[in-house]
């Protein structure tokens, strides 16, 4: 997942990925470039429900722990 990529590249980032990918937070919220957003798998209903709670939701918002 994108969360794993960030963690592997940078080590733990304080507050990022707080629930470790269990869809219980929105701390892994990212904005993808439109081209990347369109190439990724579609968000599940569970991800969309959690994204509704994210601050600053945008058309290309995703949860990094769900992007593969
Ligand atoms: Fe919590 Fe992604 S790490 S929802």
From TrEMBL:
The keyword Iron applies. It comes from Eptatretus burgeri (Inshore hagfish). GO terms for biological process: P450-containing electron transport chain. Residues 1-68 form the 2Fe-2S ferredoxin-type domain. This is 2Fe-2S ferredoxin-type domain-containing protein. The chain holds residues 99 to 166 of 196 of the full protein. GO terms for molecular function: 2 iron, 2 sulfur cluster binding; electron transfer activity; metal ion binding. The keyword Iron applies. GO terms for cellular component: mitochondrion. Keywords: 2Fe-2S, Iron, Iron-sulfur, Metal-binding.
């Amino acid at each position: 997942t994108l969360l794993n990529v960030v963690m592997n590249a940078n080590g733990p980032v304080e507050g990022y990925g707080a629930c470790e990918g269990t869809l219980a937070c929105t701390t892994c919220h990212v904005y993808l470039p439109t081209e990347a957003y369109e190439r990724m798998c579609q968000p599940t209903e569970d991800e969309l429900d959690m994204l509704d709670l994210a601050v600053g939701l945008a058309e290309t918002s995703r949860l990094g722990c769900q992007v593969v």
